[in-house]
Amino acid sequence: MFNKQSIFLIFTVLFTLSNKINAQHSCANSKIKSSITNLSKANATNEQMDFMEKYDVIFHDLNLNVERTSTYISGSVKTVAKSKISALDTFMFQLHANLTVDSVFGYKNQKLSVIRQGDIALVLLDSVYTFNQFIQVQIYYHGTPPSAASAAIGNGFSNKASPTYSNQITWSLSQPYSAYEWWPCKQSLQDKIDSVFIAVTTDTSNKVGSNGLLKSITPMGNGKHKFNWETRYKMDYYLVMVTVGQYKEYLQYAKPKQLADSILIQHYIYNNPLAYSNNATSINATKSMVELFSDLYGLYPFYKEKYGHVMAPFSGGMEHQTMTSLGIFNFGIVAHELAHQWFGDNVTCATWKDIWLNESFATYSEYIAAKYLTSASNTATVLTNMHNTAKKIDGSVYFTDTTNVSRIFSSEITYNKGGSAVRVLHYLLGDSLFFRVCKTYQVQFANGNATTNDLRLLVNSLSGKNYDYFFNQWIYGLGYPNYALKWNQIGNQLFINIDQSNLKSANNLFQLSLPIVVKTANGDTTIYVQQGDAKNSYQFSFTNPIISIALDPENWILKSSTVTKDASIGNEEHLFSKENIIVYPNPTNGNVMVNTNKNETVTISVYNMQGKLCLTKESFKSGVLETSILQKGIYLLVIKTNEGLVYNEKLVLN
Q1: Which of 297-306, 390-399, 534-543 has the lowest mean pLDDT?
Q2: Helix (H/G/I), strand (E/B), else coil: 590
Q3: By three-state DSSP, how is residue 460 classified?
Q4: Which residues, 6+ apart, have CB-to-CB distance to 232 below 8 Å?
Q5: pLDDT tens-digit profile of 308-335?
Q6: How is domain 23-261 classified at the CATH fold level?
Q7: Rounded-to-integer distance, Cα 289 and Cα 281, Å
Q8: DSSP string, 193-205
Q9: What is the signed CA dihedral for 453, 459, 465, 468, rounded to 10 degrees?
Q10: Does domain 578-653 have CATH number 2.60.40.10?
């Protein structure tokens, strides 16, 4: 989802039973009464979800009546589920109290007893179902959904006319907890629905957008027709959607290199001619984005069905599986919601605490799309805006209060700080490994869920290194680094001092290899310095006069920084000079001799150009440094005394 700001209504289930129980169902209702009473002994929300975890949803068949003129809804939802326990005789579901349950029927069309208290309903099943036995329940209901603004953007079910194009639309938006506001369901992230059929009967002037493929449009008489949509990919409850209005259909076809055939892109655009002409550039960019993300992240996950957009008058977008709902069209929002088909829909966060896995990667994908498909200046603007927004408020990307919808979908933290953190991960891993992680993530957790820890383990496994520090600092930690860089050139020596601070968390210093670009008349040279302490000093050999220095000019790292030339830098007695250090041979195809000419022992460390420690040797004065165990390449040799005196030199292994 994009640009979500709303207030969460914490729904509470009141377990007070009505005494008006139909006599012929008194025995059945007695069992249901017992179930409800037991639930009231603990936290209602947790107990309610535990109760519903006794079954696994396999299939939903929604057969609804909806018009574009109001939110009134009626119809039925058939659910096929599988028992996860040895003896299941009661079926629980969620449906907002505003909506009336007319009747419930079982597998053999037998009417079942149901009791509702608030937003919870319990049904006595027609039999006791054993482990892995299939259950079928069909719920008939009607009513007007609430207008409590409890979804991430507005209500779970809304009706409004577009202020720009005048089209009146009825649409759903269920994330995170609002599916129950318009259809009876189980709101569990980890119980993905295997397949969903969605049929909506409406006026013949309307079209209905939904998930999957449009299988047919059936005439129903009396000025009505029925749109029959079907999706056979696994899907989370909050991604089920219907949108009803007067639309023009606009089709495209993407052709990723992995497929001989093409992927249908089906847009439902307001039937006002300006709706297409005003948004044609962003609409038509969808094809290129599907092909790009298929190349970088793996083939579009739902290629056997479709991708597309349906317009609705709300502020933002919602990544409904195979058909995003959009209030506005622009390049960034189209890229964001499309990326969610990989990060959010194919692989869904396992809990709302892990929502950054959905939103951060989608936000960073706005930058990826800009980089590959637009100009360098536009790409730089996208990146700057992401970093600047991330700095507006503080907080860790990972959080625990999942009752606060505004916090779940914080633009500053979940989206933009998270997106900035993903960019740091991209920097640390490099292009090849970063996109390999993205593709493997899509395969390993396809049609399922992932946690933050799942991603951490995957990164460590594929890289063969330990990136726990990244997650501790950027995902679980607070703030971002502030760097004060001062430099000076004395003769052919470049001296650099960098002080690091974190205005939000003194205990969270960032361990990074910082890229520094040194500009001379003969061109630019990029050097990397390992930054792990609050104060760091470095020394390099530079024969040519230095014109200027830039810290992280490609904006890889979320940070604040200053760069200053300071004539006092390099004159301190505590800095090593080149004359005190001998490293030879350099370049080398084997080991190297290091002579520090120091009386005290030092620590020698070797880092690769991504800032990862590859080799360290303590209590060292002079002698052979065994570098033959390292792969060929360019490294940074760092010599440091117990007092923190530092000397750096580029080390080349052939």
Answers
A1: 534-543
A2: coil
A3: helix
A4: 194, 195, 212, 304, 305
A5: 999 999 999 999 999 999 999 999 999 9
A6: Immunoglobulin-like (2.60.40)
A7: 12
A8: BSEEEEEEEEETT
A9: -30
A10: no
